[in-house]
Design goal:
The structure is a single chain. It is built from 15 helices and eleven strands. It is of the alpha/beta class and 424 residues long. It has one domain: TIM Barrel, CATH 3.20.20. The strands form three sheets. Strands 4-5-7-9-10-11 form a six-stranded parallel beta sheet. Helix 9 links the parallel strand 10 (271-276) and strand 11. Helix 1 packs antiparallel against helix 13 (382-392) and helix 2 (33-42) crosses helix 13 (382-392). The longest helix has 23 residues, at 5-27. The radius of gyration is 22 Å and the shape is globular. 46% of the residues are buried.
Length: 424
Amino acid sequence: MQIEKNKIDSYNDALLKEHQRKFDFAKAGINDIESLLQKLINFQVAIPSWALGTGGTRFARFSGGGEPGNLEEKIEDIGLLHALNKSSGAISLHIPWDIPEDTANIKALAAQSGILFDAMNSNTFQDQQGQELSYKFGSMQHVNKAIRKQAIEHNIEVIKYGIELGSKSLTVWLSDGSCFPGQLNFRQAFQNTLESLQEVYAALPSDWKMFVEYKAYEPNFYSTTVGDWGQSLLYANKLGDKAFTLVDLGHHLPNANIEQIVSLLLMEGKLGGFHFNDSKYGDDDLTVGSIKPYQLFLIFNELIDGMDASGMNHTTDLGWMIDASHNVKDPLEDLLQSVEAIMIAYTQALLIDRKKLIDAQNNNDVVTAQEILQNAFRTDVRALVAEARLKSGGALNPLSVYRMENIRNELIKARGSKTVATGL
Ligand SMILES: [Mn+2]
């Protein structure tokens, strides 16, 4: 289903007066409001193809009904999100969950909704039906060369799908590691993984990037072969200029200083992409901004600072993607909340008075430095984000339009209550 622009406009009309009052208040004191709004209009966050169904835990999965049953319907769902918030103009595909059977048709469908193909994701962390060799003891790290070869060939196949769709990057997340001391020779596992990644890297087109994602633990609980940003950076540096580290917010040990990691990776020119989610305990895959909004803001502070320092384009020079999945919300509502939280943190970080911050830092004025950051964080920027959406033709309040249009019920009517989207 689609939502017509005139419907969105009529919902907006009812909110316009109140919005204008809030926007006038919010923009007072901002020097160049037009350039700020333009940055917000440009900023796009990719939606992963596996986030459109209700997520599962390892214990159970409770489908909410009306889930997309194929890639076409997933693109349709992202089209709905993008029509509402105008900031979800990309999809990140996971192979083999979402193999495009008719590439030309898929491309046309995405183009109709203004959706680009962001990073492609490979999967060697589970066995697929009919797969010859098992990844039970790892994929690219495996002691058996034939299994490593199978993983390499899978990644090269993913690149081929990506080329057809117009993607420009491959994200490799490996669950490889070990559950018990002694299970693995760390150096051998690293070497095997590096050599496997090198073969995949050699198959990358010249204008592509490879993102090496790390994760501290789970599903392996003793060691992970790409376990932290240091290990990812080692691989990326050894691979070459097209290889970068990808930071997933949930993939750290508790209380890791993610903003510092981001800052140093940017300094080294080795930050490639970002996976947004939030967590209380581990890789909880909760909605970004729902648990630690201040951390998200501090990360955006470093992202903007580091990107501006090297003249990077905020929208296009890093891969931005949501990577969350849980059991209790309507996934489309959750994605609307996620994108909103990202836009709010980005806007707040854009408001930081960087000159004053540098002065405070150079004078060891700890109190002023903290005040500058917290002033920006405590600013209610929701009207600024809404104004950017309005200017792009989106909804002032995407979530309320989604509910008032009964979109989930419409999707259930069209697709049934028992459909289950591919993914975890
Ligand atoms: Mn991730």
